[in-house]
Design a protein that fits this description.
By secondary structure, the protein is an all-alpha fold. The protein contains ten helices and two strands, in the order ββαααααααααα. It has a two-stranded antiparallel sheet with strand order 1-2. One of its GO terms (molecular function) is DNA-binding transcription factor activity. This is HTH tetR-type domain-containing protein.
């Protein structure tokens, strides 16, 4: 019997299991569909093209996935959805303020669209007819909203934000979907980097006011303008 391949070793000396042949083939399929999406829309891509780009047969695609949409969904999960864990760790460990959390989440979203626009456009195409994709998409924004809500609650507890009595999660989820639609509309048309910067600034302002972080600043500005 042939012994298993040796485990790989990281730079820190920790041993990790070697990647299996199946894992490598699955990754090749995800890489293939991402390359194809960069060249043409999802509706024009075929299973045969995905397989060829991975150096595999059409039958191999169906061994791992139930069809083209499932390959795309897996690619989205790999590149987009699971990355929110990094944001969660960062905001929780550092105990960030609400606006710092918002800044990181929005910055992450804009950067994600810059790097993965074809994949994210495909994700939006799947939302209407693939329930699992819709559930994952909604779960991502719900997770972001919970990160913001937790930061709002921390700020309220330490007196950095006024306690308005509203549910911070309900406010955060509404603001998150507002941002999602605006970012989507911008990145699915031709635009300039200046437009990106302007949208980011506008969203930051609206969210700041939405969570109450702008109330004190707005009051000070008003007092200064009135000369009091």
């Amino acid at each position: 019997m042939t012994p298993p391949p040796p485990a790989s070793t990281s730079s820190g000396g920790r041993r990790r299991p070697a990647m299996s042949r199946g894992d490598r083939q699955e990754i090749a399929l995800l890489d293939s569909v991402e390359r194809l999406l960069a060249a043409k829309p999802l509706t024009e891509i075929t299973i045969a093209e995905i397989a060829a780009g991975a150096g595999l047969s059409r039958a191999s695609v169906y061994f791992y996935f139930d069809g083209k949409d499932a390959v795309v969904e897996a690619a989205i999960a790999r590149s987009v959805l699971r990355v929110v864990d990094t944001l969660a760790d960062r905001t929780a460990i550092r105990g960030e303020t609400a606006m710092a959390s918002v800044e990181h989440i929005l910055g992450f979203s804009f950067d994600l669209w810059r790097r993965n626009a074809p994949l994210l456009r495909a994700a939006n195409h799947l939302l209407g007819h693939r329930p699992s994709m819709r559930a994952a998409w909604e779960a991502y924004f719900e997770r972001c909203a919970r990160l913001i809500a937790a930061a709002v609650e921390r700020d309220r507890a330490r007196g950095a934000l006024p306690d308005t009595g509203d549910d911070p999660y309900r406010t955060a989820i509404a603001l998150s979907w507002m941002a999602e639609r605006n970012v989507y509309l911008l990145f699915t048309r031709e635009h300039t980097r200046q437009e990106e910067d302007e949208l980011l600034a506008t969203l930051m302002l609206l969210i700041r006011r939405g969570i109450g972080a702008g109330a004190a600043a707005d009051g000070r500005d008003g007092a200064e303008r009135s000369g009091t």
